[in-house]
Amino acid sequence: MKGVQATNFGGPEVLQYKTDLPIPTPRGGEILVKNEFIGVNYVDVYWRIGMMGPAPNGILGREAEGTVAALGPGINNLTVGSRVVFYAQGSYAEYSAVPAGMAYPVPPDVKPSLAAASMMQGLTALTLTQKVYAVQKGDWVLAHAAAGGVGLWLCQLLKAAGARTIGTASTAEKMALARENGAEFTVNYRKEDVAARVEEITGGQGVNVVYDSVGKDQAENNFKVLAKGGTFVMYGVSSGIPAPASPAKLAAKDIRFIGPAESALMRSVGTPSEFATWCAKLFDLVAQEKVTVRIHGTYPLSDMAQVHRDLESRKTMGKVLVKP
Fold first, then answer.
1. Got the DSSP string for 168-215?
2. What is the value of pTM for the model shown?
3. What is the pLDDT of residue 92?
4. Residue 260 is inside which H or E element, if any?
5. What share of the chain is helix, strand, coil (3-state, %, to 5)?
6. What is the pLDDT of residue 74?
7. Would you say 140 and 208 are in contact if contact means Cβ atoms under 8 Å apart?
8. Less Cβ around it within 10 Å: N or C end of the chain?
9. Helix (H) or strand (E) holding 123
């Protein structure tokens, strides 16, 4: 089968496209999925460079949409030929053997590609805003990377919740996209003083919560802009891992810090029942077109190294998909 393997840690060049990989055999409790659309996420970069450890069989990727090609022993809730989307390791391939409990039947009203484009980023945004920190109407929120995959979901969900969202982005085009998707205000972090602008926008009040996928580059700004008793949610570290926050710094404003380990998606959807519950919420929104799922582009699997280069250079806006 076709697939992309990383036998070493490193830059995008370690992603090797192959056409002679063996098709996996589903074990007990697993299904074999013929992938049609593969979702790419920034966490895949962390796996590639070794932050998350080695990927099983060297095949990265955590989500894909496709059809069930075979059933392992003990599977009776899915059928061969049914359309599913899954959240499990090993999606950078033509076929993936995944736990049946982490595969969700795609509702018929969800158009092809939208399930893969929604899965990880949509679930991340939902759990961040409804579980990790339950946003309330009127909350001031700072969302970094607001035109990114998760960022665009956050902007839409926060607007629906009645929050007042300030989104950061690096270009005028990205700022406009964030506003189109629900951000009330935007700040160009390359040209403006983020902390000063947030203070101006909120009238000195500060924000109730920060959702940060950037990490090191915005860590100090986050402490500056949070209101007393605010919550700092770090769910990614695209610019690097910041220095640990001292207890004194947190205590000075009574800040609650929620790091990547606590905010990680797997903490919310790690069991089949949790996964199914959150997927039902997600795909209800998608099927009823209550959210706009923006797809940046669809690449061939053979171009995976370029996909990673585009992700890391911040060239993408919205979801990146790959077709085997």
1. EESSHHHHHHHHHTT-SEEEETTTS-HHHHHHHHTTT--EEEEEESS-
2. 0.95
3. 98
4. helix 260-263
5. 35, 25, 35
6. 94
7. yes
8. N
9. helix 114-127
- Yes or no: say if 209 and 135 are a contact pair by the CB < 8 Å rule: yes
What is the SS3 assignment for 30? Answer: strand
- Any idea how long the chain is? 324
Residue with tokens 């090191």: 216
Six-digit token pair at 28?
Answer: 């007990």
Cα(62)–Cα(28) distance, rounded to whole angstroms?
A: 20
Of 54-58, 224-228, 267-271, the least confident: 54-58
Q: Report how far Cα 254 is from the mean position of its chain's Cα atoms.
A: 28
Instruction: Give residue 314's pLDDT band: very low, low, confident or very high (50, 70, 90).
Output: confident
Q: Name the average pLDDT for the chain.
A: 95
pLDDT the model gives residue 63: 98
What phi-psi label fits residue 182: left (phi over 0), alpha (psi between -120 and 50 degrees) or beta?
left
pLDDT in tens, 154-179: 999 999 999 999 999 999 999 999 99
Which two three-digit tokens encode residue 250?
Answer: 């947190």
Residue of 239 and 184 predicted with greater confidence: 184
Q: Which two tokens stand for residue 261?
A: 């380990």
The closest of 249, 276, 320 to 86, measured between CA atoms, is 276
**Separation CA 141–CA 181 (nearest Å):** 15
Q: 243: pLDDT confidence band, cut at 50, 70 and 90?
A: confident
- How high is the pLDDT of residue 318? 87
**Which residues are CB-contacts of 178 (< 8 A; sequence separation ≥ 6)?**
146, 147, 151, 152, 155, 167, 169, 186
Give CA 77 to chain center in angstroms: 27
Number of neighbours of residue 293 by Cβ within 10 angstroms: 23
Asked whether residue 303 carries a pLDDT value surpassing 90, the answer given is yes
279 vs 105: CA distance, rounded Å: 9
Query: Which residues are registered as beta bridge partners of 299?
Result: 322
Q: Which residue has the higher pLDDT, 108 or 316?
A: 108
Instruction: Report the amino acid identity of residue 120.
Output: M
- Strands 95-99, 103-105: pairing kind: unpaired
